Task: inverse folding
């Protein structure tokens, strides 16, 4: 018996078992961010709002990967948006949500409501497998949405409005636990 080969085989088994258990304990969410403050917000939204949690769970069941980042939409005219760009691979579709980093524009809970609103838009795209680029996204929103007007190019949907309002109502009904007050003080 070649002991080196045996050791490698054993190591490989242990490694696979560890990798498997890590995946089983903490599956990677398909709602992501490169920003730790937003990762905290996503966790808080899931913990405090049933609607928010439902939206992220629906995205986790889709073939989409949704990034939520701070940034500007329509040169700052909008507080948040789903960017009209989709990157597709054979397995996944990547979409990106941008929300304003300006704290004076929205309260903490309004920001979570806005993220919920935009997550609903992400699901609208992910629920339509034919949407793979700007053209197909616009065609879909012409069917299910209405133009936002005001000189802005974009669409709004009643489903996203309802999702944002539901998240906000649930948050207002529940005081922020101290852990999140601390987290936000650190993050911002
Ligand atoms: Zn919207």
Result:
């Amino acid at each position: 018996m070649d002991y080196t080969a045996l050791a490698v085989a054993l190591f490989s088994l242990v490694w696979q078992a560890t990798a498997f258990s890590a995946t089983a304990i903490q599956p990677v969410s398909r709602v992501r961010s490169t920003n730790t403050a937003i990762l905290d917000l996503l966790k808080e939204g899931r913990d405090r709002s049933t609607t928010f949690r439902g939206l992220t769970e629906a995205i986790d069941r889709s073939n989409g990967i949704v990034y939520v980042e701070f940034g500007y939409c329509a040169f700052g005219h909008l507080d948040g948006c789903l960017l009209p760009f989709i990157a597709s691979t054979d397995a996944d579709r990547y979409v990106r949500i941008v929300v304003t980093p300006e704290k004076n524009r929205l309260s903490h809970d309004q920001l979570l409501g806005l993220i919920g609103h935009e997550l609903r838009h992400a699901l609208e795209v992910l629920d339509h497998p034919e949407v793979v680029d700007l053209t197909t996204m616009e065609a879909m929103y012409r069917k299910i949405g209405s133009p936002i007007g005001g000189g802005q190019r974009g669409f709004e949907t009643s489903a996203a409005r309802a999702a944002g309002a539901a998240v906000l109502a649930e948050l207002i009904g529940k005081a922020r636990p101290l852990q999140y007050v601390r987290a936000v003080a650190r993050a911002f």
Remarks:
- DSSP finds seven helices and seven strands in the chain.
